[in-house]
What we know:
The chain is α+β, with helices and mostly antiparallel strands. The chain contains two helices and three strands; from the N terminus they run αββαβ.
Amino acid sequence: MTSKTMNKAEETKILTKKKPTGFVAICQCGVIVGAMDYERTERREAGKLLGTWLHDGCTVEPRFNGTWSVTVENCRCGTGKTCGEGGAE
């Protein structure tokens, strides 16, 4: 085994990782079916919603900049619902 030593620039880069400001749920059919502003959502509720999206088979993508917007639509999987409501099974 070899150990890798980090220089100061690498250490600083690791220590200054951005935290997500929100999350977007993308259904298996490719449609954005959910969005959450993480900074304005209670942590317990955020955890439940993220877990539901993952359980429903959605891909969850973090958003990092301060202002972002998406258009949330019904999925095209035939149920007419959004993720978190049984939309992607």
